[in-house]
């Protein structure tokens, strides 16, 4: 498989989630994103309004994370955080699941958690991506988390936060695509650093790539 640079750019969420990122770093990220015409810029909630303003009229979306990076906050907290980010201008929300619930096989708890955030996000006209943190789950838990995301009304499932013990793999993308079917988005995130990496993920079923190395992937660095 091959894509033009412009086509590949539309798969990419240009990402900066490090806690030490400063305003100048975020604004530089936005300039890079606008020039490369990636799909979105993904940042922590504190930067959403800054990014939304910086990206005005560029065609690049604003994405924020919720319950990040552990997922171990209450559903109410995730809903509050998601609503705030959407109000600040986020077009997309990437939430972290309750990882313990997935490991315990508690599909109802996952559906409740994801569904509440999905409802809040959709009410604001945004879309929801669900981070299942594949590196911490066995195959059964991965499948469970994907099924729960479909049932709960999510728009995407996503592999990783990039802050745990591993990132995206081709095998996990293929598993996620198999479970969620053809209609839900699948986002590969964590460790995707080259064009070859990105194309392999897309060939396996990814429809979005989360990367802090977007310029290297696109060959525009």
Automatic annotation (TrEMBL):
UniProtKB keywords: Cytoplasm, Lyase, Schiff base
Cellular component, GO annotation: cytoplasm
CDD domains: DeoC (cd00959)
Subcellular location: Cytoplasm
Gene3D superfamilies referenced in this protein's UniProt entry, alphabetically: Aldolase class I
Active site: 94, 158, 187
EC number of the protein: 4.1.2.4
Main location: cytoplasm
GO molecular-function terms, A-Z: deoxyribose-phosphate aldolase activity
Catalytic activity as recorded in UniProt: 2-deoxy-D-ribose 5-phosphate = D-glyceraldehyde 3-phosphate + acetaldehyde
InterPro entries assigned to the protein according to its UniProt record, in alphabetical order: Aldolase_TIM, DeoC, DeoC/FbaB/LacD_aldolase, DeoC_typeI
Metabolic or biological pathway: Carbohydrate degradation; 2-deoxy-D-ribose 1-phosphate degradation; D-glyceraldehyde 3-phosphate and acetaldehyde from 2-deoxy-alpha-D-ribose 1-phosphate: step 2/2
Biological process terms in GO annotation: 2-deoxyribose 1-phosphate catabolic process; carbohydrate catabolic process; deoxyribonucleotide catabolic process
Function: Catalyzes a reversible aldol reaction between acetaldehyde and D-glyceraldehyde 3-phosphate to generate 2-deoxy-D-ribose 5-phosphate.
Family: Belongs to the DeoC/FbaB aldolase family. DeoC type 1 subfamily.
This protein's name: Deoxyribose-phosphate aldolase
């Amino acid at each position: 498989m091959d894509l033009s640079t412009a086509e590949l750019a539309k798969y990419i969420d240009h990402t900066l989630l490090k806690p030490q990122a400063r305003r100048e770093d975020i604004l530089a990220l936005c300039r890079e994103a606008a020039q490369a015409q990636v799909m979105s810029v993904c940042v922590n909630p504190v930067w959403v309004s800054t990014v939304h303003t910086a990206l005005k009229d560029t065609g690049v979306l604003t994405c924020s994370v919720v319950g990040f990076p552990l997922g171990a906050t209450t559903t109410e907290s995730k809903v509050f955080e998601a609503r705030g980010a959407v109000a600040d201008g986020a077009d997309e929300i990437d939430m972290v699941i309750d990882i313990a619930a997935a490991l315990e096989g508690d599909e109802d708890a996952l559906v409740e958690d994801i569904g509440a955030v999905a409802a809040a996000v959709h009410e604001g006209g945004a879309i929801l991506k669900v981070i299942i943190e594949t590196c911490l789950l066995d195959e059964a838990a991965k499948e469970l988390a994907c099924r729960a995301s479909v049932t709960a009304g999510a728009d995407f499932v996503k592999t990783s936060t990039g802050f745990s013990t591993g990132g995206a793999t081709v095998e996990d993308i293929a598993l996620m695509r198999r479970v969620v079917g053809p209609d839900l988005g699948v986002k590969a995130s964590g460790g995707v650093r080259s064009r070859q990496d990105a194309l392999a993920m897309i060939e396996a079923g990814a429809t979005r790539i989360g990367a802090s190395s977007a310029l290297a992937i696109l060959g525009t660095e």
